[in-house]
Design brief:
The chain has two domains: 2-117 and 262-321, Medium-chain alcohol dehydrogenases, catalytic domain (Quinone Oxidoreductase, Chain A, domain 1), CATH 3.90.180.10; 121-258, Rossmann fold. The N and C termini lie close together (11 Å). The protein contains eleven helices and 15 strands. α3 (118-131) crosses α4 (148-159), α3 packs across α9 (266-279) and α6 packs parallel to α7. It is 30% helix and 28% strand. The strands form three sheets. Strands 3, 4, 5, 6, 7, 14 and 15 form a seven-stranded mixed beta sheet that branches. The chain has a six-stranded parallel beta sheet with strand order 10-9-8-11-12-13, sandwiched between helices. The chain has a two-stranded antiparallel sheet with strand order 1-2. By secondary structure, it is of the alpha/beta class. β1 (2-8) and β2 form a beta hairpin.
C-alpha cells in the first residue's frame, strides 16, 4: 500500500510502505479521505511523535470503506462506509483501527467530508459537554471560532441551547461564525475579549471557555470566566508556561482543565466515540450541525495542505482525498 512518509515538513512523500492488517478487535479501513489537524503538522516537523504503540504514519481521522475485520469484531462488516478517530496512520491507503473508534457516516454527509468530522466532534463533545458540562442557557467562548474545532463547536453549542461567543482574526471569519450561530463575535486583533464579554454579559462572564492559545490567554481567560466557570485548554498555540493567579481562580470557584484526545486509551476514545455517535450524529442528520470543509486536496499535496492550515487562510477543516 501507499502512505505519506514525512522526510521533512515540506517533503511529505506518497510512497510504498508495508501493508497493514487488522489485529483482533480491529477494523481495516480503505481510506477515501483523511482530515488534517495541527497535530499532523507538528508531527511532520518532528515535534509531536506518535504515542507508544501507535503507527508512525501521520493522520488522526479518516473516512472510507471497511476492507476487512479482525477477530472478535461483530459490529462492522466489509463494504460498510465508515469514519474513524485514530491515534495515527490515517495518511495512507489503508489503516487498522480499534472497532470502538469506528463510526457510521452521519446521515446526509458525503464520504470525503466525513473525514473532517471525527476529531472536531470528539474534541468538542468530550471537552465542552462531558468535561465542562455546558448546558442550555449558559455562555461558551470558543477561541479560534473559524477553526475546525470552532466551526463545529459553535453549531453543537447552539443545538444544545447555549449562547456562543467566539474570537477570530478577520471580519470574514467572524461573518462565518455569525452565520453558524455565534451571537458574540470578537476580532482578537482589535478588541479585548475580556472587556467585550464583560460588557455583553453585565459582568457575568463565560460559563465555559474552550481555549487553544494556552499560556498567552491563561490570565485573561480566568478574567473572562463566570463564577463556577470551567476553562478547558486543548491547545498551546500561545505557549506552554504562564503564571496562574490562584486568588482569582479561587474567588470564582473556577476550574482549569487541560486535555488531549490522542493520548487517551482505546477505552476512553471508544466511550467518547459512542457518546458522539449517540448525541452529535442526530444533530448532523437533522441539519442543525454541518461539516465546514474549507479545502479538499489530493493526498499527494499533503505538504501544501499543512502549509494552508498554518497560513490561517482557510476556515473550517482541510481534508485530503485518496484515489482508489
Ligand atoms: N487537545 C486535543 O485533544 C486537541 C484536539 C484537536 C485540536 N486541538 C487543538 O485545537 C486547536 C484548533 O484545532 P483546529 O484543527 O481547529 O486548528 P485550525 O483550524 O488550524 O485553527 C487554529 C485557529 O487558531 C486561531 N488563532 C490563532 N491565533 C489566535 C488568537 N490569538 N486568538 C484566538 N484564536 C487564534 C486561528 O484563528 P484566525 O485564523 O482567525 O486567526 C485558527 O482558527 C489547535 O491548537 C489544535 O492543536 C487539540
Amino acid at each position: 500500500m501507499r502512505a505519506i512518509v514525512a522526510e521533512s515538513p515540506e517533503q511529505l512523500l506518497w510512497q510504498e510502505v508495508p501493508d497493514v492488517s487488522p489485529g483482533p478487535g480491529e477494523v481495516l479501513i480503505k481510506v477515501a479521505a483523511v482530515g488534517v489537524n495541527r497535530a499532523d503538522v507538528l508531527q511532520a516537523a518532528g515535534k509531536y511523535p506518535s504515542p507508544p504503540g501507535a503507527p508512525d504514519t501521520i493522520g488522526l481521522e479518516v473516512a472510507g470503506v471497511v476492507a476487512d475485520v479482525g477477530a472478535d469484531v461483530a459490529k462492522w462488516s466489509v463494504g460498510q462506509d465508515v469514519c474513524a478517530l485514530l491515534t495515527g496512520g490515517g495518511y495512507a491507503e489503508y489503516v487498522a483501527v480499534p472497532a470502538g473508534q469506528v463510526m457510521p457516516i452521519p446521515s446526509g454527509v458525503d464520504l470525503v467530508d466525513a473525514a473532517g468530522i471525527p476529531e472536531v466532534a470528539c474534541t468538542v463533545w468530550s471537552n465542552v459537554v462531558m468535561t465542562a458540562h455546558l448546558s442550555e442557557g449558559q455562555l461558551v467562548l470558543f477561541h479560534g471560532g473559524a477553526s475546525g474545532i470552532g466551526t463545529h463547536g459553535i453549531q453543537v453549542a447552539r443545538a444544545l441551547g447555549a449562547r456562543v461567543a467566539v474570537t477570530a482574526g478577520s471580519s470574514e471569519k467572524l461573518d462565518l461564525c455569525r452565520e453558524l450561530g455565534a451571537q458574540i463575535t470578537i476580532n482578537y486583533h482589535d478588541e479585548d475579549f475580556v472587556a467585550r464579554l464583560q460588557e455583553e454579559t453585565d459582568g457575568a462572564g463565560a460559563n465555559v471557555i474552550l481555549d487553544i492559545m494556552g499560556a498567552a490567554y491563561l490570565d485573561r481567560n480566568i478574567d473572562a470566566l463566570a463564577i463556577d466557570g470551567r476553562l478547558v485548554i486543548i491547545g498551546m498555540q500561545g505557549g506552554i508556561k504562564a503564571e496562574l493567579n490562584i486568588a482569582k481562580l479561587v474567588g470564582k470557584r473556577a476550574g482549569v482543565i487541560g486535555t488531549t484526545l490522542r493520548g487517551r486509551p482505546v477505552s476512553g476514545k471508544s466511550a467518547i466515540v459512542e457518546a458522539v455517535t449517540a448525541s452529535v450524529w442526530p444533530m448532523i442528520a437533522d441539519g442543525r450541525v454541518r461539516p465546514i470543509i474549507g479545502a479538499r486536496l489530493p493526498i499527494q499535496r499533503a505538504a501544501d495542505a499543512h502549509q494552508l492550515l498554518v497560513s490561517g487562510k482557510v476556515a473550517g477543516k482541510v481534508v485530503l482525498t485518496v484515489d482508489s
